[in-house]
Amino acid sequence: EDLAGQANFDRIISEDSRIEPRDWMPAAYRKSLTRQVSQHAHSEIIGMQPEANWITRAPSLKRKAILMAKVQDEAGHGLYLYSAAETLGTRRDELNNQLLEGRAKYSSIFNYPARTWADMGAIGWLVDGAAIANQVPLCRASYGPYGRAMVRICKEESFHQRQGWEILYELSNGTPEQKKMAQDAVNRMYAPALQMFGPPDSDSPHSQQSMKWNVKRFSNDELRQRFVDMIVVQAEALGLTLPDPDLKWNEERGHYDYGQLDWEEFSSVIAGNGPCNTQRMQRRRTAHEEGAWVREAAAAYAAKTAAAAAA
Ligand code: FAQ
């Protein structure tokens, strides 16, 4: 135990200042952040798949260019986050192995299929929207590299949400078939998007400690509520409805009440039994194998450059 290190860590946290990679930190802090940041990175990378599947089917050149840029942004987010995680002392190939071997989680939402073009709208609006609501407070996370990565990621996510909203707006104001397709996509994505915020507070083992460490600033339920309050008005502006009969304004609380979510489904999806878990992991493994030559070439080039510098 490092008493001076612990005292310094406690002071930094109590001043709401930042822990940097070379600072002493408790092993549990390092472990929990490595868990959260790496799972966040995995989510970004796996999260490319539902939308990447639609790039070849985008309805116009412009839509295709926007969607490609968006999916590439998600890859970039994964890379910033793996880099932030590595500063905590675990190598990226080990983090990647944890994902490939099923030892690490990624967000439940990406185990649902993207069935129609309207899903590109619903994903942008609801999934990126939930991601922003969850991640804006993480810009102030006590771990410096994570918070700084979040700032840039949130800016890009704002563009993503806006492009999704615009896809839905066009469809909602299009033909009756298009409007129906938009509504159907929202109906399917709504509840899984609310579950992105994690289990209810009463069932969230990490929340309390993460809040004491200034990693999380709000609880899962607080952020979920904030998101619901936000999207109700946005749905009205879209001319679409949210699929929850219990959704109604609660004057006393100053928030919208919403219906119970299916937490059994959530657990089952996280346990690997969602509609697309197998497909997503298979695709990731294949992509990793197909990228082996790139990693080998990069390593050979690095060795050659290092040898030349030493000579
Ligand atoms: N899915 O005690 P808590 C994106 C796990 S956004 C799967 O509440 P914590 C952008 C949790 O890891 C999506 N697992 O945990 C994009 C823990 O398991 P563990 C990614 C979940 O950490 C958009 C256990 O349950 N965003 O990718 C989920 O305090 C479009 C107990 O939970 C982030 O990762 C879930 N939904 O709170 C990309 C944000 N919820 O580790 C492409 C950063 C919980 O003990 C296209 N992360 N679990 O095995 C966080 O804010 C937090 O980690 C939470 C969970 C809020 C996700």
From TrEMBL:
GO molecular function per UniProt: phenylacetyl-CoA 1,2-epoxidase activity
Alphabetized Pfam families for the sequence: PaaA_PaaC
Record GO biological process: phenylacetate catabolic process
CC per GO annotation: cytosol
Domain of life, per lineage: Bacteria
UniProtKB keywords: Oxidoreductase
SUPFAM superfamilies in alphabetical order: Ferritin-like (SSF47240)
InterPro entries cross-referenced by the UniProt entry: Aromatic_CoA_ox/epox, Ferritin-like, Ferritin-like_SF, PaaA, PaaA_PaaC
EC number: 1.14.13.149
EC main group: oxidoreductase
PANTHER family, sorted: 1,2-PHENYLACETYL-COA EPOXIDASE, SUBUNIT A (PTHR30458:SF2), PHENYLACETIC ACID DEGRADATION PROTEIN PAA (PTHR30458)
Name of the protein this chain belongs to: Ring-1,2-phenylacetyl-CoA epoxidase subunit PaaA
Species this chain originates from: Neomicrococcus lactis
Origin organism lineage: Bacteria, Bacillati, Actinomycetota, Actinomycetes, Micrococcales
